[in-house]
């Protein structure tokens, strides 16, 4: 017999990092929560393997993970990066960020997605207030009598005062709620892989802007690097088709051999790149968080970080509503969350698109201005400090 409860304060659809963090935050505060996830989580993996999904986690995200009690399980597998080196293929411009200049121990951490997922799952399991439905897919949705009526693909029905769509960029919750999403295709794909380099990564995150898109090398805790090579779709396909040796040569050259020769490359995977923005984040009894609400270019590594900021903001509003006896699904409560987050997310979306345009241009005046701008910027210590602190989410 099935003893799982079916009525909740909140149902969260999607147990990616954003959905799990929200479940942990609400569960720890005593909300009754259900979390639905279509795929089984990964608990174990071979010791020498690296997840292809690797994230640059900001200081603000680290603080949230600390406050949830997830950080101690993550820290031993997190690689701090203390410096950032960014340069332009089309000009002389180069910028260098150093955590020492800011009086900070590091600029952030590079962490495998599955490491954060496992740590958050453990926190969620420990709350005693979160019920996991997995594998389960949300299929139908109806809002009536101040309750969301949710149908799952296995025939189960759940009800909740608040349904949260944390189900990623193809969000079913968003579609069923009739929330329109603006999509603009960057015309690029990101090739992701783990590589071994001749020289050590020096605890530095490296990024070179090429005319076809940015190429990033992120330092991993086992000494290797995770690369994200964004390029026009045809170029990305061509890179994917190369044999390992030819790919390593092309990568080394594109990276100007800053870390020497590329000695080995693992599996290569392509991700299509799009910018997306939901026209609304909330409706009565419903909120969108993370990629369901907004998708940005990975060039500044902000996607998960923005999603975790959504989690913090929504959890804060729900706690405040509860403290004053208000319904967590009330539109006025949810609108406060939307107002707190939409501006920041839109700004990041616009900045990423502008960056892509600026560095994608091969026009001589743009290239010259870019080189000069980067050089001036590199010398403007207070401006640099301000920018990097904002990227750290501080
Ligand atoms: C190449 C690349 C590099 C990136 N690098 C970075 C980086 O360095 N730093 C960073 O912050 N961000 C980065 N990002 C962005 C980051 O991947 C996303 O922002 C992040 O994964 C969004 O998390 P999410 O939990 O909102 O969505 P997702 O990770 O997409 O999770 C959604 C979950 O919902 C589940 N789901 C979907 N539909 C249903 C349904 N109907 N029922 C039940 N479950 C469902 C899915 O199985 C999934 O587990 C990168 C992205 C790309 C493409």
TrEMBL record:
Residues 9-341 form the FAD-binding domain. Pathway: Cofactor biosynthesis; ubiquinone biosynthesis. PROSITE patterns: UBIH. One of its GO terms (molecular function) is oxidoreductase activity, acting on paired donors, with incorporation or reduction of molecular oxygen. Component of the Ubi complex metabolon, which regroups five ubiquinone biosynthesis proteins (UbiE, UbiF, UbiG, UbiH and UbiI) and two accessory factors (UbiK and the lipid-binding protein UbiJ). It comes from Thiogranum longum. Gene3D superfamilies: FAD/NAD(P)-binding domain. GO terms for biological process: ubiquinone biosynthetic process. Belongs to the UbiH/COQ6 family. This is 2-octaprenyl-6-methoxyphenol hydroxylase /2-octaprenyl-3-methyl-6-methoxy-1,4-benzoquinol hydroxylase.
């Amino acid at each position: 017999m099935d003893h799982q409860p079916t009525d909740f304060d909140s149902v969260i659809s999607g147990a990616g990092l954003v959905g799990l963090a929200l479940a942990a935050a609400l569960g720890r505060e005593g909300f009754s929560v259900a979390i639905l996830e279509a795929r089984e989580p990964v608990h174990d993996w071979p010791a020498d393997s690296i997840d292809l999904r690797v994230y640059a986690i900001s200081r603000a995200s680290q603080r949230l993970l600390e406050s949830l009690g997830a950080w101690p399980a993550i820290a031993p597998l997190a690689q701090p990066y203390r410096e950032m080196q960014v340069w332009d293929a089309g000009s002389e411009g180069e910028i260098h960020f150093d955590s020492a200049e800011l009086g900070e121990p590091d600029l952030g951490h590079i962490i495998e997605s599955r490491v954060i997922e496992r740590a958050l799952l453990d926190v969620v399991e420990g709350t005693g207030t979160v019920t996991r439905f997995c594998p389960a897919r949300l299929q139908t949705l109806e809002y009536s009598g101040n309750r969301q009526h949710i149908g799952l693909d296995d025939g189960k029905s759940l009800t909740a005062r608040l349904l949260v769509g944390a189900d990623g960029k193809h969000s079913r919750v968003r579609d069923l709620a009739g929330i329109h999403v603006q999509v603009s295709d960057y015309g690029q794909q990101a090739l992701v892989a783990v590589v071994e380099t001749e020289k050590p990564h020096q605890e530095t995150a490296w990024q070179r802007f090429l005319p076809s898109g940015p190429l990033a090398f992120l330092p991993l805790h086992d000494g290797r690097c995770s690369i994200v090579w964004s390029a026009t779709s045809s170029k990305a396909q061509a890179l994917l088709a190369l044999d390992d040796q030819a790919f390593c040569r092309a990568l080394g050259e594109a990276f100007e051999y800053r870390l020497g020769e590329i000695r080995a490359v693992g599996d290569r995977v392509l991700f299509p790149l799009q910018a997306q923005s939901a026209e609304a984040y909330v409706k009565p009894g419903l909120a969108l968080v993370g990629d369901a609400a907004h998708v940005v270019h990975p060039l500044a590594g902000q996607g998960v970080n923005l999603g975790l900021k959504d989690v913090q903001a929504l959890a804060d509003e729900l706690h405040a509503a509860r403290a004053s006896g208000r319904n967590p699904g009330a539109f006025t409560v949810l609108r406060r969350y939307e107002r707190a987050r939409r501006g920041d997310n839109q700004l990041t979306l616009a900045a990423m698109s502008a960056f892509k345009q600026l560095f994608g241009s091969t026009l001589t005046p743009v290239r010259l201005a870019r080189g000069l701008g980067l050089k001036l910027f590199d010398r403007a210590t207070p401006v640099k400090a301000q920018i990097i602190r904002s990227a750290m989410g501080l």
